[in-house]
């Protein structure tokens, strides 16, 4: 079974917030193809924008979404990265799309301040969640129904997984590979990436 991983990208997205998970899931499929050449790839990854228009990441990198809200299709694993999310929080169509996509997905994950976008949909109400250490107070203040936890690399509540800042998204994504496709594949993926996987 191949799961579709959809990663939302937007103006002022943090580069490693989206690129870290992108690398993990694509490397996992490359490694899986070596381990079992005749088996379906575990993940098909694509970036999604509100439209197909280019967006500019926080550091200035220009990104071209592979697909848009209107034609994104089914998403099994929705990844919402962070960055400067103030403008995204003020776009009802973005919040509505995240909420609708998450309701149909097997699981939804956030990196860094992507948790604020999930919180705005209401899907974090009553759940433990985390974000970048510098944004924990903002998450607490803006969404008091969320059980904000600090000092955690990621928090897996079942259908919703949140991670701390930037590099923690790589650790979380490896955790998701292990959860969805097996521990051995996650470990081999971390090794392929030459990455010292920090497990929560």
UniProtKB/TrEMBL annotation:
It comes from the Bacteria. Coiled coil: none annotated. InterPro entries: Class_I_gatase-like (IPR029062), DJ-1/PfpI (IPR002818), INH-QAR (IPR052158). Pfam families: DJ-1_PfpI. Gene3D superfamilies: 3.40.50.880. Residues 4-178 form the DJ-1/PfpI domain. This is DJ-1/PfpI family protein. It comes from Duganella levis.
């Amino acid at each position: 079974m191949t799961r579709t991983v959809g990663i939302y990208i937007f103006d002022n997205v943090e580069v490693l917030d989206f690129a870290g998970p992108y690398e993990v899931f694509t490397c996992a499929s490359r490694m899986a193809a070596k381990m079992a050449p005749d088996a379906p790839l575990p993940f098909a990854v694509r970036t999604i924008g509100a439209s197909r228009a280019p967006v500019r990441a926080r550091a200035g990198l220009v990104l071209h979404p592979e697909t848009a809200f209107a034609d994104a299709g089914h998403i099994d694993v929705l990844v919402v990265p962070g960055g400067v999310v103030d403008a995204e929080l003020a776009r009802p169509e973005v919040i509505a799309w995240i909420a609708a996509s998450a309701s149909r997905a097997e699981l939804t994950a956030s990196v860094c301040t992507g948790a604020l976008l999930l919180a705005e949909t209401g899907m974090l109400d009553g759940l433990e969640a985390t974000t970048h250490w510098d944004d924990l107070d903002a998450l607490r203040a803006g969404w008091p129904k969320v059980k904000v936890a600090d000092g955690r690399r990621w928090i897996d509540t079942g259908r919703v997984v949140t991670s701390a800042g930037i590099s923690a998204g790589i650790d979380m994504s490896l955790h998701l590979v292990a959860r969805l496709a097996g521990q051995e594949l996650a470990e081999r993926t971390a090794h392929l990436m030459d990455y010292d996987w920090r497990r929560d």
